[in-house]
């Protein structure tokens, strides 16, 4: 079943014109994006820097609107932000004056969950991300990996259908990133959320995604959607040496390194 | 297991008294470091007039000043002036907070208001409040109103400008994150903008607290019938030099007290910062 549907989505920005002083011109960040995400699917988005991945995510949050086209969730057009979508940013975006627990309760409060239930729910999600003993720490007292766990718990706690993640692990060291990747898979299995995950890492995209959407730059369009035929990534300890993984990885790599990308930074 | 544990506990025990003795020593060293210069200062103040290095009519020995201070305290005279000063400054200060914080939050939130008003606010902030004292007296007379008004004036600008810049500098990602949870503008303001701004606002409040005393004392020196500023000039005119110094010491203590109070409050409200 289709959960999210992009229908010829275009987003243009007004930017300063380099040639005419004081003038503005239109800049097309993404153009005619069209694809669907299935219910409960884990989909990853890769593409060169500046190809419009974050722009796409902003459109999904409903904080900005497409210039043309529309995005449907469960068949209804997105008109604004909503608690059916949870967002996780690369820079965590935790409220520094709230403890880990307070941050998680923030979203619950936004949803209108009564105070008595908030504590219990926060407890549950802290436990889910393995931070039961850090509930009363302030963000500055947590490591980067812990902060991102809190951010994930915060987004999960108000129980959205869709989890939107913009390079959530990019600021973490390799080992923490790997741990969080497997944990995210575990959480996905357990909760059955639809996840849209943006990344720069080809390995990460292939390891996490059931499908990988490869985008082109200037303007951002869908180049290809690659199916990743891996099952039970969590059971297979050495999934990255699996031939299916290797060939999928090569395909994504090739797509990102074809001539039109030359000169672009990935 | 048991055999391994035993030596460990044996090793732990003797180390305990060592650990507890060193903090008390270092605390002593710290207290010494903090107070030594202060003690020397008092000693110098005591001895210089005693030994005739300075004229004791102009600078009586410390002990004499303290005696005068004590007498004033017991007679209730000092309390009367202290009370007059603290009530005026507190009144003006709190009034300034009540005006400047809400106003700053609003101005900070609207970029147009911010851009239009910041230059003139900066101008006011940098106009020494005392330079305007004649104007205040001219318009409001020499009663309580003019004194409270000048404190209000002096306290308003640092709080207002800090509040505006606090709101302006709230991390946009936090706003985005909160907005994505579909919370109302009012809640966004109350739950995100306000708490994020508190530390910067408090820096302004602390600046205002210091300013409040400064301008009030000066205002009292020019025209008042009570208050520490009045008391100091009165003592000077009547050649009550020890009393004059007693008044000055009281002002120092008052300043320290206010600064300590506001710093602790600031620390409390910023405890979530590194
Ligand atoms: N508010 C804006 N105004 C003008 N241009 C913008 C705005 N936001 C994004 N852009 C432009 O749109 C393009 C896409 O930006 P976006 O942030 O979506 O890229 P991205 O794929 O997320 O890049 P990265 O991988 O580096 O995060 C960029 O060229 C950027 O300069
Ligand atoms: Mg981005």
Please give a quick description of this structure.
The complex is a heterodimer of chains A (266) and B (274). Chain A has 266 residues and is an alpha/beta fold. Chain A has helices spanning 53-61, 100-110, 115-128, 144-157, 174-191, 202-208, 243-256; strands at 2-16, 24-38, 42-46, 68-73, 76-77, 85-88, 162-166, 194-198, 211-216, 221-227.
Kindly list the characteristics that best describe this protein.
heterodimer; A: 266 residues; alpha/beta; Rossmann fold; 2 domains; six-stranded mixed sheet; four-stranded antiparallel sheet; B: 274 residues; mainly alpha; MetI-like fold; flat; binds adenosine-5'-triphosphate; membrane (chain B)
CATH homologous superfamily classification of the largest domain in chain B: MetI-like
Structural class of chain A: alpha/beta
Order of helices and strands of chain A: EEEHEEEHHHEHEHEEH
What do we call the CATH topology of the largest domain in chain B? MetI-like fold
Radius of gyration based on Cα positions of chain B: 26 Å
InterPro entries (chain B): MetI-like, MetI-like_sf
Pfam families (chain B): BPD_transp_1
Biased composition (Low complexity) (chain B): 14-23
Region (Disordered) (chain B): 1-23
Give a description of the structure.
The complex is a heterodimer of chains A (about 270) and B (about 270). With about 270 residues, chain A is α/β, with parallel strands linked by helices. Chain A folds into 2 domains: about 1-85 and about 160-265, Rossmann fold (3-Layer(aba) Sandwich), CATH 3.40.50; about 95-160, no CATH class. Chain A is about 35% helix and about 25% strand. Chain A has a 6-stranded mixed β-sheet with strand order 6-7-8-3-9-10, sandwiched between helices. In chain A, a hairpin with a 7-residue loop joins strand 1 (about 1-15) and strand 2. In chain A, helix 6 packs across helix 7 (about 245-255). The mean pLDDT of chain A is about 90. Chain B has helices at about 1-50, 60-75, 75-110, 110-125, 135-140, 145-170, 170-180, 185-220, 230-235, 240-270. Chain B has 2 domains: about 25-60, no CATH class; about 70-270, MetI-like (MetI-like fold, Orthogonal Bundle). Chain B is flat. The longest helix of chain B is centred in the N-terminal third of the chain and has 49 residues, at about 1-50. In chain B, about 85% of the residues lie in helices and about 0% in strands. With about 270 residues, chain B is mainly α. In chain B, helix 5 (about 135-140) packs across helix 6. The two termini of chain B are about 40 Å apart. Classes of the chains: A alpha/beta (about 270), B mainly alpha (about 270). The structure holds adenosine-5'-triphosphate and magnesium ion.
């Amino acid at each position: 079943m289709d959960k999210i549907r992009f229908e010829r989505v275009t987003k243009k920005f007004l930017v300063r014109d380099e040639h005419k002083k004081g003038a503005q011109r239109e800049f097309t960040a993404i153009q005619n994006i069209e694809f669907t995400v299935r219910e409960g699917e884990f989909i990853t988005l890769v593409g060169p820097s500046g190809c419009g991945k974050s722009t796409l995510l902003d459109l999904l949050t409903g904080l900005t609107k497409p210039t043309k086209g529309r995005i449907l969730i469960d068949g209804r057009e997105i008109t604004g932000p909503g608690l059916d979508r949870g967002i996780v940013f690369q820079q965590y975006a935790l409220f520094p004056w709230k403890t880990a627990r307070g941050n998680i309760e923030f979203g619950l409060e936004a949803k209108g969950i009564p105070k008595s239930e908030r504590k219990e729910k926060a407890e549950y999600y802290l436990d889910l991300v393995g931070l039961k003993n850090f509930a009363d720490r302030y963000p500055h007292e947590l490591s980067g990996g812990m902060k991102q766990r809190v951010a994930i718990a915060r987004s999960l706690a108000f129980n959205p259908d869709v989890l939107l993640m913009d390079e959530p692990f990019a600021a973490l060291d390799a080992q923490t990133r790997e741990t969080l990747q497997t944990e995210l898979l575990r959480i996905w299995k357990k909760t059955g959320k639809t996840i849209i995950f943006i990344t720069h890492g080809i390995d990460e995209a292939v390891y996490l995604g059931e499908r990988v959407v490869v985008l082109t730059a200037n303007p951002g369009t869908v180049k290809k959607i690659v199916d990743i035929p891996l099952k039970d990534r969590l059971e297979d300890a050495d999934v990255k040496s699996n031939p299916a993984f290797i060939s999928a990885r090569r395909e994504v790599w090739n797509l990102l390194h074809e001539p039109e990308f030359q000169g672009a930074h990935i | 297991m048991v055999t391994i544990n035993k030596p460990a506990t044996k090793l732990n025990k003797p180390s305990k008294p060592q650990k507890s003795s060193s903090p008390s020593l270092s605390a002593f060293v710290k207290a010494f470091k903090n107070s030594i210069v202060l003690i020397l200062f008092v000693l110098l103040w005591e001895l210089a007039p005693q030994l005739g290095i300075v004229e004791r009519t102009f600078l009586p020995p410390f002990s004499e000043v303290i005696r005068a201070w004590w007498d004033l305290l017991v007679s209730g005279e000092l309390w009367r002036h202290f009370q007059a000063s603290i009530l005026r400054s507190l009144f003006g200060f709190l009034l300034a907070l009540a005006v400047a914080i809400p106003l700053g939050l609003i101005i900070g939130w609207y970029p147009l208001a911010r851009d239009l008003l910041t230059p003139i606010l900066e101008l006011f902030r940098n106009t020494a409040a005392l330079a305007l004292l004649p104007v205040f007296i001219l318009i409001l007379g020499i009663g309580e109103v003019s004194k409270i008004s000048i404190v209000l004036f002096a306290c308003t600008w640092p709080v207002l400008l800090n509040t505006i810049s606090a709101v302006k500098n709230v991390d946009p990602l936090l706003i985005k994150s909160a907005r994505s949870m579909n919370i109302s503008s009012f809640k966004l303001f109350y739950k995100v903008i306000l708490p994020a701004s508190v530390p910067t606002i408090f820096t302004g409040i602390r600046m205002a607290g210091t300013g409040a005393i400064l301008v009030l004392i000066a205002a009292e020196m020019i025209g008042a019938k009570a208050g520490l500023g009045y008391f100091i000039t009165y003592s000077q005119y009547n050649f009550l030099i020890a009393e004059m110094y007693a008044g000055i010491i009281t002002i120092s203590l008052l300043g320290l007290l206010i600064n300590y109070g506001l710093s602790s409050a600031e620390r409390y409200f910023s405890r979530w910062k590194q």
